[in-house]
């Protein structure tokens, strides 16, 4: 039996309209980028809603009480070999100094969990009242942080939080950039530089690291939902600790296997430096590179009309200041927001000098200034 479907005139009109409808239109990158920074898109490590840094404050009376404690603090970094880490440390030390808190140790784990566990054990011998830290691995370091908390040390985390830890009981608070927002911003920057179309590759961080995973998830989702003519044709994770070298190899392999690639996204500035080297080694002066984080080397490349056409910056100095103030909350047993996040900052050559000042609280370096001339 043959069944024939007869459409009524109105239904037929709708069907004809749908069949003739164009494919989904791409977003306007400039318009999307203008909205970045007006709100925070990330949630905290345990799904917490973000509070702004402006919500964290200490009165003159509270500062006086903290100064009278003669407290000691330790800064236990995952990795200190980039401008972001150094700006965090500078912000922490500047604010601790205002609070009369002595920084007794600053360590660099080189992104190795076992080294960070050893660093924590060494630091504890100096009996700090406060530790501000970023775990290299949330599971492998959890026991060492738990031992510090059990000893009465007030813990404040930047970006990452040990597995099983809860704000308000195991630690005071965590502070982060809007890393999901940074990933979104870089997707729009990539689209803007490519004119909304082309094959691209992604160099991501192959680790259980909350904030870098947020960036990777955000850039993929934003490209897929907003730019139908941009196709991700290659992805490669890097584990470090030689992130520039690993990224150079990953990007080089992408360019050889996928010669149609017009752009590559890098998860932060040090891997982006490796992608730049891969582009140079493969004669790809035309390759568009975008990344998260504003470091001096990528800024120089951008300023000198190199491959890097855009990036989304964090605000590490302000993050460090906020973390130190939250450490003060811990010393005072003052209720603290569980998760504080600072908005993303899209950067191109056009606003590079202004952005550098916002991120680092100082003018651009001489090397960047020379590259801009």
Structure description:
- The protein is about 45% helix and about 20% strand.
- Strand 1, helix 4 (about 85-100) and strand 2 (about 100-110) form a beta-alpha-beta unit.
- The protein is globular and about 60 Å long.
- The termini are far apart.
- The chain has a six-stranded parallel beta sheet with strand order 2-1-3-4-5-11, sandwiched between helices. A six-stranded mixed beta sheet has the order 7-6-8-9-10-12, with helices on both faces.
- With about 375 residues, it is an alpha/beta fold.
- The protein has helices at about 10-20, 30-35, 60-70, 85-100, 115-125, 140-150, 180-195, 210-225, 245-255, 270-280, 295-305, 315-330, 350-360, 365-370; strands at about 70-75, 100-110, 130-135, 155-160, 175, 200-205, 230-240, 260-265, 290, 310-315, 340, 345.
State which percent range the strand residues make up: 15-25%
The major beta sheet can be summarized as: 6 strands, parallel
Which residue ranges are poorly predicted, with pLDDT under 50 across at least 5 consecutive positions?
A: 1-23
Question: What is the number of helices?
Answer: 14
**Sequence of strands across the biggest β-sheet:** 2-1-3-4-5-11
User: Structural class of the secondary elements?
Assistant: alpha/beta
Give the total of beta strands: 12
What is the gyration radius calculated from CA atoms?
Answer: 23 Å
Q: What is the arithmetic mean of pLDDT?
A: 92
Compute the separation of the termini in Å.
79 Å
Amount of helix: 40-55%
The shape, in one word, is globular
Pattern of helices and strands = HHHEHEHEHEEHEHEHEHEHEHEEHH
